[in-house]
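Lay summary. Proteins are chains of building blocks that fold into shapes, and those shapes determine what they do. In this project we predict the shape from the chain. Here is one chain we studied, written as its sequence of building blocks.
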Amino acid sequence: MMGPVEPVYRSSWCDIDLTAFRTNLDRLRPGPPTMALLVVKANAYGHGLTQIAAEAAAAGIDMLGVATIGEADALLAARIPTPILIMCALDRREIELAVEHEIHFLAWRPEQFGWAAHAAERTGRRPRIHVEIDTGMARSGVAPADLAHLLDSLSTDDHASIVGLASHFFGADLETTGSARQQLDAFQQSVTVAAKYDLRPIVHIANSPGTIRLPDSHLGLVRLGIAAYGIPPSEHTPLPDGVRPVLEWKAHITNITEVAPGHGVGYAWRYVADTHQRVATLAIGYADGFHRHPLGVNVVLLHGARCPVVGSVFMDQCLVRVPESVPAQVGDPAVLLGQDGDAVLTADDLAERWGTNSYDVISGIRGRVPRRYVR
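And here is the predicted shape, written in a compact code that computers can read:
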């Protein structure tokens, strides 16, 4: 029987540059008195939940943001000491668990406060509630006009459980920031309303583009998302100097085949060579998050050259046409995302080819692709 396999051993992997990650945090954090939350949902945007959270904690990040109770539980199991905020809606059982484990969470309906109060009575622990204000997303939260009514409906104990006031920009990454400024104004009015109830919560609305483009939105806390991983939130939100990508995605060549003219490759021969060609097999496929559609758009970097993926991407492998000028051999690494010499493939490059966005590209790199942490 085979013994334990080193968990990072596979012919495809991601390199995660922790030095770049630390630098990005330093360049993006506004500094005191504004706190900073790092968003680590979706496996830290594909970078590895617990490893990135531990590095952020060591760097002094003030809070970690997740989307699910399961992600929060993974951080607790890893003994990450940093406070956690769950940024999506929770049902009754999830709120009970959040209270029990002293996890911050969003609430905006009276019954959510009721569930939290019952959990507090049962566990003896005070809820940590951030009231969400819907300033335009139309996804969740109380309307600014209804905030006073909500607060009037709550008990003194409920008020004592409110530690945050939050909203979310829907357009801070657009060409102009007019809509974001309107949201910020509405949110500031809600902060004023909360103050009338003697509430002094942590107030936060700024995501990555808000942090970069709207300094007056920093308030009590900023939420650093995709920018912390060195990826621009949009074409209208360039990153500050020194912020660079943290992740590179690579795969080894496992075979090279000489293909004669007129011979096809892969299933259904969706690619047929018109000349004598060298075709390399890479240990990466759509089950790893390397998209198979649309056909014929993927490229990888080999020895600094852009080489097209030919035929269909398989579940676990793909085929690449290697120009005669490229001295590729079995065992050589191909770069799917990152830099090779002067050539670069960015998350935005892949997103454009796949008809999606950079968030989908990096968070879609599957867990079976090992992450290797380097400095």
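What the prediction tells us: The chain has twelve helices and 19 strands.
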